[in-house]
């Protein structure tokens, strides 16, 4: 029980730090930065660097010149326009000045000053999101192969494991979430932001349902519906609120953190009372998940413009996801062999 108390203390300490961690950006309020952006939008240049985009309207039509001088299609698709390029170059110029003065980096429009690579806003976060997606896909395929080709099946060719369908749904939600995470970190616009936030909320909501059903060994379909229905309603309402009423970052952060902490506690309690042979993997994932939450709370600027706390959070989820799917496979094997013996 001592370990359980430590987990509870750790996770509630993390939640208590959520509100102070949310703060407004300082960089976009800097008068020098604002003046730079205004001048750039008029002249199309920051120092000796000029942008073709500033000769076009937001829909890609030229302000002056013949009709065939259109904004390149790939640039319009990524929505790099005059304002976004002006903001980016002014941010870099201002941060260079601040660094010479010995000042620390600040956020601009809610984001740290990242270095673009081939037009990608946060290349490290994109790469790690893609890696997480690959790990999820590998875990899902290995889970499927184990159930259908290595473990005994029922006479009707269905699996003995009662949570097979739930883990398949979990895999789809996870891969969808990491896909939109990669897209969002590649280019932060309103659409990609909402898709990233919505998919993350949906994933957290489903993993909370899954934690309750597995930890409490809920196998009856009617009971599963009774557990899932109110949580699905809550998550759906929250997603609709974010997309069609107000994208409230503070509220969303609290809701997502509450769902994370709740399922960590459920898994921690279950690991403490169960006789499951792979419960040590649960302890590692729970402890690792708690540490990873700190990276979301105690933010810091990107190292050399590439690796910030959020990117490190993506990095920590890679080994945790691999271990998590290892536990899922162990659980499937453990339950299948136990049920197969009963059938015999």
From TrEMBL:
Keywords: Golgi apparatus, GPI-anchor biosynthesis, Membrane, Signal, Transmembrane, Transmembrane helix. It is a multi-pass membrane protein. One of its GO terms (molecular function) is hydrolase activity, acting on ester bonds. Belongs to the PGAP3 family. InterPro entries: Per1-like (IPR007217). This is Post-GPI attachment to proteins factor 3. The chain crosses the membrane at residues 124-147, 167-185, 197-213, 225-245, 280-298, 310-328. Involved in the lipid remodeling steps of GPI-anchor maturation. The keyword Transmembrane applies. One of its GO terms (cellular component) is endoplasmic reticulum membrane. Residues 1-17 form the signal peptide.
